[in-house]
Amino acid sequence: MFRVDAIYLREINLPLAFPFETSFGVTTGRRILLVEIESEGVTAWGECVAGEHPYFSDETIDTAWVITEMELAPRLLGAEIEGGGDCPEIFRQVRGHRMAKAALENAVWDLAAQRAGVSLAAMLGGTRETIACGVSIGIQPSIAALLEKVEKEVAAGYQRIKLKCKPGWDREVFRAVRERWPEILLSCDANSAYRMKDFDHIATWDEFGLLMIEQPLWYDDFYFHSMLQKRIGTDLCLDESIRNRRDALAAIEMESCRILNIKVGRVGGFSEAIAVHNAAAERGVPVWCGGMLETGIGRSHNIALSSLPNFSLPGDVSASRRYWTRDIIMPEVEVSAAGEIPVPTAAGTGFEVDRGRIESLTVRRQSLGSGARVAV
Ligand code: OSB
Ligand code: MG
Questions:
Q1: Full-prediction pTM beyond 0.90?
Q2: How confident is the model over 242-291, as pLDDT tens digits?
Q3: Ligand 1 touching residue 240 (CB < 6 A)
Q4: Cβ(341)–Cβ(303) under 8 Å?
Q5: CB of 110 closer than 6 angstroms to any ligand 1 atom
Q6: Measured between alpha carbons, how far is residue 57 from residues 11, 116, 239, 267 in Å?
Q7: Helix count (H) and strand count (E) of the chain?
Q8: Are 109 and 274 a contacting pair, CB within 8 Å?
Q9: Residues 275, 350, 2, 61, CA torsion sign
């Protein structure tokens, strides 16, 4: 058992190496909330994946900061804990704010793993030695520009290409990519850009042999996705709609999708991510690990999570250099020519946080807890 003596919040600002465009907008840089927790001289970090704007989900870095400072940190600081699995109960009174909760809970899992001298992956129940990597390619200015991006990622060895799409950037794009690469694992992600009037249009995508279509309809929907799934041959995958294990069960039961994207921030932390993973595994539904343009801290957590057995499809966890000119962990995350990342076996995440770099990127900070150092 241990107590968290101090919690440090920081906002870092980090420009993306390449702009990333989805159906909800363009991201050129990130404002990121990092949490660092300390217990008996051991420290661990968590990354809050909430965006700057409430476009992917209703949380933002600013709501997460306030909720962490006012509600979550005080609860965690008072608690006697065994490990990350205690966090959902500690935070239970606070509804929602899952990305804020996940940042702290994930740090607690890492801290517990370090204390036990085991890898974070092992602590989570991971069994894979390597994880399979895919990439998510944003909407591009032209089809020619997209083909160039796909070519680069296929040559790098990535095992699955996911194309962001929206009305007007779909059929012709899929056709162009399929003509050039008839055999690759190809999927698309609409981030909720389509409506019922588009069902017939989406049904025509079956000819492209997509591995899946991710979250075509409303961000909070199961029912209309299940209507769509009945009308098409291609498997649907839900991302935004799945907030927890019960959502996963509802979606599977209603056949709103046949594949699940698990994002640890979206479901509120590793405990719920494992619960979603297990519920899907028991029902024969494959899952994969989504990404939220994370720094190395969130990325290292995604690697550990992806080592669980039912992460049987390539995820959106890719190399640091696709996002950042320089990451905030050492070594940076690299992907092999076979499109794999080895799962670290060292205690904790297996990566070292680059404090100097984080310090130079910090624009806001807050120390909480009686054990906190005065300045960080
Ligand atoms: O829907 O998966 C998504 C990025 C930001 C918000 C939502 C999504 C994404 C991605 C990028 O697809 C995944 C990544 O490369 O980190
Ligand atoms: Mg998605």
A1: yes
A2: 999 999 999 999 999 999 999 999 999 999 999 999 999 999 999 999 99
A3: no
A4: yes
A5: no
A6: 19, 35, 11, 11
A7: 14, 15
A8: no
A9: negative
Report whether pLDDT(30) > 80: yes
Structural element, H or E, at residue 173: helix 171-180
Cα four-point dihedral sign 124, 358, 262, 135: negative
Of 101, 162, 166, 263, which is the active-site residue?
Answer: 263
What is d(CA 317, CA 292) in angstroms, rounded to the nearest whole number?
Answer: 9
Residue 78: the pLDDT is 83
Residues 6+ apart with CB under 8 A from 225: 216, 217, 236, 238, 241, 251, 256, 257
Give the integer Cα–Cα distance in Å for 61 and 99.
Answer: 9
The answer to whether 264 and 109 are in contact (CB under 8 A) is: no
Q: Which residue has the tokens 């085991």?
A: 118
Span between the terminal Cα atoms of the chain, in Å: 26
Nearest Cα residue to 194 out of 167, 164, 212: 167
Please confirm, yes or no, whether 164 is among the known catalytic residues.
yes
Q: Tokens in use for 260?
A: 């699940």
Beta bridge partners, 2, equal 81
**CB of 20 closer than 8 Å to CB of 293:** yes
- Of 316, 320, 324, 335, best ligand 1 pocket probe by most atoms within 8 Å of the beta carbon: 316
∠ CA(354), CA(355), CA(358), 5° rounding? 90
Q: Please tell me the distance from the alpha carbon of residue 368 to that of residue 73, in angstroms, as a whole number.
A: 7
User: Cβ(45)–Cβ(107) under 8 Å?
Assistant: yes
Q: Which residues in 23-171 belong to E strands, given as ranges?
A: 25-39, 42-48, 130-132, 134-137, 160-164
Report which of 70, 78, 109, 66 is spatially closest to residue 6, judged by C-alpha positions.
78
Length of the chain: 376
Cα–Cα nearest to 294, from 272, 316, 312, 273: 316
Closest CA to 286 of 311, 309, 263, 306: 311
**Cα–Cα distances in Å, from 336 out to 66, 309, 315?**
39, 20, 15
Could you confirm whether 263 is annotated as catalytic? Answer: yes
